[in-house]
Amino acid sequence: MTKSLQKTILDTLAYLVLVIGALTMLVPFLWMISVSFREPAQQYSRSLIPNPFVFQNYVDLFRVLPNNAFLALVFNSFKISTLTVIGQILTCAMAAFVFAVVKFKGRNFLFALLLATLMIPPQVSLIPNFIIFKYMHLIGTQWPLILPAFWGGAFGTFLLRQYFLTIPRDLVDAARMDGASLFDIFWRIYLPLSKPAVAALAIFVFKDAWNDLLHPLVYLPTDMQQTTLTVGLAFFQQQLQLGGKFTVLMAGAFLSILPLLIIFFIAQKQFIEGIALSGVKR
Amino acid sequence: MEYGLKPLGREKLWLWLMLVPTIIGLLFGTIGSLLATLTLSFFDWDLIGSPTWAGISNYDALFKNESYMEAFSNTLKFSAMYVPGVVIISLLLAVLLNRKIRGVGIFRTIYFLPTVTSAVATALVWNMIYGRDTGILNFMLESVGMSPICWLCTNNAMLSVVIVNVWGAIGEGMIIFLAGLTAIPRDYYKAAELDGASGFQQFLRVTIPLVTPSIFFQTLIAAINAFQAYDYIYMLTRRSGGDSSVPVAVFSIYRNAFHFFRMGDASAQAIQLAVLVALFMGVMFWWERRYVVYE
Q: Do B133 and B34 belong to one domain?
């Protein structure tokens, strides 16, 4: 009797803490949405429900900025993030396949070397990469953001290799009997059978590329026709603040997170399991 | 015997072709650029003239130049608050969620939201929330009779930035702890109960020891993220001149390399950061061998 009473009290306390915590997590998002639907004069109002409820900020976002800059930012972010996903999936999957399935001299050494790079902070690569891209006259273009996605990476390779190792060897041997080549086995057996792992990696890579601030800030800091949404929003924070238009800024912020929110609600399982299972991240 | 498919004839070429991107990445992206940064750290170079040998003077500057020392110590201070904050709060939330209460899925989704969305977008709204005269946080303080706080002024900015960073990271930590907690066999708790252990004793003697692998892993991840923290700090503490009221190591590297074009100094700072990460990992793995319980 006292035991169940104790459990009820503890459960209630747990709920209380969890609900307060959840509100703390949610309020910034609700506030962002709320402000984005207000009239500019109401931007500092303390009421969560916009009164009146206006769409004008979303219209302004596409009209007020010169040369359709916001549309360009959205397009650039989509383009760069999509190309990053394609590059990472292709190059990491190829390497993961070779490391997981093929026997060759130097395999363990190369794989250990790759894993060791997980310890190198990305900021260390930034300076030499900037210099290389400068000599290639690529600063001010989107190439420095896209090309590195096509040179593999320890995190993606490790994640896919772990999955490839679970695919039964018999399939490989059978395919070999039928005269399948190495590349056939990769392209026709391993890739199609690894859709869950590929999907999880694709989501992660897309999220990181979409949210990246440091790299576009280094390579494309001011060109609103070429750069990404994150840099654009950081730039407009100062511009719009001068005009005092938080309402338009919040509309931009909300639109910028909307694609990822949609992906998250559709593929929540992959998202969360990816984190729980992957172990290493970056 | 180690299993492995033997490449036949021309397939040896295919094998290396499939590794070409990864090898380029090692050469230019990671190992190669670590060596390049290390080399650059012994030169002075503004990217315009030719590099001149600087000996260890750039490393000397790390301990003499006040703004570099401030940036590095800010990174340490930030990490000292951020890492325990993330680990303790996300462990607590995971323990509460593990009580088999209803609505676990909804809570998990809500706590995870900041992990999905960009720091840039959420920092914009935090900037409003932290507003001195207009923000809702001060409005809430005033409505309970407290005096308003200037959240993003120099004195408080560090704490305010830590709060937002912790807010953004506990969802991910919670997931990792939840995975660790659900892996603990129920029998252990039953056995402890039979021995007359109270709920709190069970937490201390069963849960904590068995969740040490997750604590280890989460501390490692949180610390690496803390050493590299940048986005929220850039968005919340940037001043109009381009500097920051809480300049951390990465902020200082970025400014030195890409605004002032002091490539040598920036490289030495980057190496300092890499050494910090490596040292921390070394300490953590030593700690793991002594204290982490693997079943």
A: no
